Amino acid sequence: MITNEKDFLAILDQRTRSRLIPELLEFNAYKYNEIEAILEERKKFAFYEGVLKEETFAPIVEKCFEEEDIRTGLYLLKEAGNAAENRSSKSISGEDVQKAIGKMAVFQQSKTILDEEEKELLKIIKEHSGESINKIYEIYNEKFSKSDRTFRRKLATLKENKFIEVRDNKELTGETNPRVYLKK
Predict the structure, then answer these.
(1) Hey, do 32-110 and 114-182 end up sharing a CATH topology, with the first three levels equal?
(2) What contacts 74, CB < 8 A, 6 or more positions away?
(3) Quick one: pLDDT at residue 29?
(4) For the domain bounded by 32-110, which CATH number is listed?
(5) pLDDT tens, position by position, for the chain (184 residues)?
(6) What fold is seen in the domain 114-182?
(7) Distance, C-alpha 53 to centroid of its chain
(8) What distance in Å separates the CA atoms of residue 154 and residue 116, rounded to the nearest whole number?
(9) Residue among 143, 107, 142, 124 nearest 181 (CA)
(10) What local confidence, expressed as pLDDT, does residue 160 receive?
(11) What are phi and psi of 83, to 5 degrees?
């Protein structure tokens, strides 16, 4: 059994755990130079020489490294290529790469299964990006009448899956209430 959830075994009952005889293998995130080498190899298979120049390839590698997921890089290569093809161009421009990066939210959502409340919370945050956590909770609570603890758990799921960012502005503005932003 393969899972990305470290706590997965904890939710299974003892009889099931004893039958599985699990062996834990941890796969650490790739280093920057490893990501670059992997994507360089894929680039050779995907495009003719000169189609994707170094200055347009670098942002793809950087975004992939930031996301800590090689699938991100593969997705960006594909989408940048599609954007260039839609323009009937024989080379991928920086604009094509930026379009691909702009579609990352769709790709992120396809990797993660959110329940209906989490999807609604994500919509609320999208509409009110930059608002305080308290304001987002008020809107969420009006719709679902759930506890603050449930709200924070849902918020943590969205943050863990890199849909949102929670920033503490205490040092900048003196505010003690963090703000929630939709990640782009």
Answers:
(1) no
(2) 39, 42
(3) 85
(4) 1.10.8.60
(5) 666 666 666 677 777 777 777 777 777 889 999 999 999 999 999 999 999 999 999 999 999 999 888 999 999 999 999 999 999 999 999 999 999 998 887 676 666 778 899 999 999 999 999 999 999 999 999 999 999 999 999 998 888 888 899 988 766 666 678 999 988 6
(6) Arc Repressor Mutant, subunit A (1.10.10)
(7) 25
(8) 11
(9) 124
(10) 84
(11) -65, -40
Q: What is the pTM of this model?
A: 0.58
Q: Which amino acid is at 116?
A: E
What are the structure tokens assigned to 15, written together? 């009889």
Q: Which of 101, 97, 95, 92 is nearest to 49 (CA)?
A: 92
Residue 167 main-chain phi, psi, to 5 deg: -115, 135
Phi first, then psi: give them for residue 131, nearest 5 degrees.
-75, 165
- The two tokens of residue 110 are 């396809």
Distance separating alpha carbons of residues 5 and 165, to the nearest angstrom: 21
List, in sequence order, every residue forming a beta bridge with 165; answer none if it has no partner: 181
> What SS3 state is found at 61?
helix
What are the sequence ranges of the domains in the chain? 32-110, 114-182
Q: Using DSSP bridges, classify how beta strands 164-167 and 179-182 pair: parallel, antiparallel or unpaired.
A: antiparallel
Write down the residue that tokens 């502005």 correspond to.
169
